[in-house]
What we know:
By secondary structure, the chain is α+β, with helices and mostly antiparallel strands. 38% of the residues lie in helices and 22% in strands. The protein has a 4-stranded antiparallel sheet. Helix 1 packs across helix 2. It is elongated, with a radius of gyration of 22 Å. The mean pLDDT is 93.
Amino acid sequence: xxxxxxxxxxxxxxxxxxxxxxxxxxxxxxxxxxxxxxxxxxxxxxxxxxxxxxxxxxxxxxxxxxxxxxxxxxxxxxxxxxxxxxxxxxxxxxxxxxxxxxxxxxxxxxxxxxxxxxxxxxxxxxxxxxxxxxxxxxx
Length: 139
């Protein structure tokens, strides 16, 4: 799932506090670049967790409907609102590297040829699936 969520960034003397109102997420970053990365990571992680649980993922609010003065960290420093893009499919590919066992059936003669050639059938299948699905490994 790809989407864009509004995020509150509150700059303090030592850190940037982050609030994602639509996802009930609070985090922080050492500077604005890190804060945006932390916001994206937290949103994507929550989306993947919600997808796995079958929970409906909240839609992003309109940025104009949010009031930074009502944010959790409003009194901690200067708050700005910005949009952060997410891609839970991309995030899942980065974090979910475990292998799953799939049984496939191929003709015996083809299995023999693959073994004789020292071909890793599992690797060939993975490469073929990524090609057909037009996806890439991100790790």
